[in-house]
Amino acid sequence: MFQNRLFSYLQKQLIVPIEEIVPIKNKVYRIKADTFNFILKGFFSYHQFVLQDSFSDSLHQEGFNQTYTFYPLAKEPPLLFDQTYYGCLEYIHPSTNTFTFQKQEDRLKGLEILSHFHAVTEKLTGQFQMAVPHFNHIEKWQERTAIFLNNLPVIRYFIQKEMVNEWLLWADWSLKGMQKESYIFENGKKVILHGDVAHHNFLRAKNGDVYLIDFDLISLGNPRSDYLQYANRILPFINWSLEDLADYKELADFLDEEGFIYALAFPTDIFREWNRAIREKNYLKPTKIQALLDLTVKQFQERQNFFMELKKRVGQ
């Protein structure tokens, strides 16, 4: 019913005739038009829609072409349907060879694109400094920890107490060290951070080019925050090896900074995924909880060894 109503609305509001709506995920659709395809993406506010349209356009103007463009397809913008604003984005035909952090070549390519993205967005900080939030890494993780602590009664039903206590030890050590070395995140150059450098936000197109997509979480901050998140994302695929992490030139210099080393110890993925599972009640679904247990239990010994290596790096 919803798609039928949306289809009828778009037929009236767009300057191109459309033939089909294909759902991709929540409030994201591939639209088959008469002569081409495009993506219809929902935004929770008009401000967010305008911001991302403007940001995408500015990226292209500054030479960062590894992302989509917005199409002006509405007869009378904005598109507003069921209290959601929609934008029409370029459809990038995906390759069957999907981007994945399991492959070394993709991990390297992702860092190369992220470095280029930061070089461009450093020029855009003045233009967008009033439109995007300022990112505070320590504050973000303190909040994540507080939610995790509140969720402990449920988490301890699935995970033994000793393992949970170990995660909390890592988090406490990490946050205290980051606070001591907070200047590295607060000072230095500022860029517009992507904020979600997960593998699914790097898209390999049919022609082989790799694109960076989805700017829902952009903020103003130090590039270390994106690189730290990238390191956290790839560590499971390099066996939680600090030595292997140093082989990535974009990350190597940061590994000489105590603040960055402290930050690597924070179990951000564990806290994030458990908080999400409890918020969305996914822990009641057998397949979801099994994936979560695989993430948090199977890698425990490797992560514990990694934590000890980090402590040695800072002389503790």
From TrEMBL:
<protein>
    <submittedName>
        <fullName>Phosphotransferase</fullName>
    </submittedName>
</protein>
<feature type="domain" description="Aminoglycoside phosphotransferase">
    <location>
        <begin position="161"/>
        <end position="233"/>
    </location>
</feature>
<dbReference type="InterPro" id="IPR011009">
    <property type="entry name" value="Kinase-like_dom_sf"/>
</dbReference>
<dbReference type="InterPro" id="IPR002575">
    <property type="entry name" value="Aminoglycoside_PTrfase"/>
</dbReference>
<dbReference type="Pfam" id="PF01636">
    <property type="entry name" value="APH"/>
</dbReference>
<dbReference type="InterPro" id="IPR047175">
    <property type="entry name" value="CotS-like"/>
</dbReference>
